[in-house]
Amino acid sequence: MTREVYLQRLRRALAGKVSGEELERTVRYYAACLDEAGPEGEEALMAEWGEPEELAERLRAAAGHRRPGRWARAGIAAGLGAVLVLSAVLGLRHLGGSGVRRVETASEDSVAGAFTLEDPFSAVDIEVDVGNVTLIQSGTDYACDLSWSGEDYTLEARVEDGTLVVQGNRSGGIHLTAEDISAWIEITVPEGTDLTGLEAYTGLGDVALTGGENGLSTGHLDVTADMGDVTLSGLRAEETVLTLDMGELSADRCALGRWTGSNAMGGMSFSGVTAEETALTLDMGELTAVDCAWGDTDVDSAGGNVTLTRLEAGTLDCMLDLGGLELTEVTAGPVDLEVAMGGVTAEDCTLSEGTVTCDGGDVDLAGALTGTWNAENSMGSVRVSTSAPRESWGWDLSSDLGGVWVDGRTQSTQDHAEGGPNFLTARTDLGEVELNFTNS
């Protein structure tokens, strides 16, 4: 069965059983899964899903759906496609305890409610299938404001052993769309206070966490969003784990300690983020970072451009399957840059030794380059410009189908020279090899 036939049958099986908007979003999502699997993997993926009609039936029956885990590039778990919000939740629960203001609806059949909890807390643990989460640091009081509307759905909050626990509750009823469910969690932490831990999970909804004037320390920070954006600002954490399946991840003015970030379908953007160690994984989306200091850094991108500007790093390892890598005013070393299909550009960078591998695109490296370098390109040119003195360099340059140039002078198809402590080995199968000394 071809992917086109599979998606057509899935569309027919869901037609009339979900809203038109949800139908289109579902089909687009499964099409994206097949795109990610590629021609060599889509047949196995469709077999794992089962017949389109069976998949549609499982989606409709998945009232108890829980987060299936990150979309792995090599396996693409079939359950992730069910990130449709198939929510079913419990009616209003009576809450007791001091510090709670309860607003109840007029009848047992009502489907909306709200309350505020004002007890102090030192940690936060949120787990909801549907809900937009907002946490801000402001004022002098603790607060947790919840509001919701929708049949069979309610929210609950309580403080247990100093931890604010927020949960979404569900019971019978199947929701193939979230159009009839809305939920908001708004948490306030006083200025000048810190948290020992902050964990948040939402199946559908955005997460926005904002520190106060002097920033909010969260201890361990762990945020997971199956379908929604995650925005961080003014936070400090000892260790950070950020996991998205579909949405945009952004952070500014944050110190994230040792941190990992992953996004199956969506981009990442960072400004003024510092860290001790950094590991970022993107399956389908672009990464941009400006004015950051990340320590040892590992970036793995399956599909999308990576743009790093004014970044300070220790080691810098970047692996891209499809997309361009652009470094501007980056300080790092050693570096390992590998791009399967796309170009590599480094401009005004301070890089101490490295390896660059490119299979389809040009390699352009410029700046204060020192140490031992190895640049290889299967299909494209290699151009290196360094501000280090010419006498401090040796080189071994060759091109199978192209020319070799040193300081603007042609050297046929290869050239070798001994020099000082710096050495460049550059080879290309199809393209030019150029080495220039900007201070010579």
What order do the helices and strands come in, and which of them pair?
Elements: H1 3-14, H2 20-37, H3 42-49, H4 52-61, E1 100-103, E2 112-117, E3 123-130, E4 132-137, E5 143-149, E6 153-160, E7 163-170, E8 182-189, E9 197-204, E10 207-210, E11 216-217, E12 220-227, E13 230-233, E14 235-236, E15 239-244, E16 249-252, E17 258-263, E18 268-271, E19 277-282, E20 287-301, E21 306-320, E22 325-328, E23 331-332, E24 335-339, E25 344-358, E26 363-377, E27 382-386, E28 393-401, E29 404-406, E30 409-410, E31 414-417, E32 422-430, E33 433-437
Parallel strand pairs: 3-7, 3-9, 4-8, 4-10, 9-12, 10-13, 11-14, 12-15, 13-16, 15-17, 16-18, 17-19, 18-20, 19-20, 20-21, 21-22, 21-24, 22-25, 23-25, 24-25, 25-26, 26-27, 26-32, 27-33, 28-32, 29-33
Antiparallel strand pairs: 1-2, 2-5, 5-8, 6-7, 28-31, 29-30
Helix pairs in contact: 1-2, 1-4
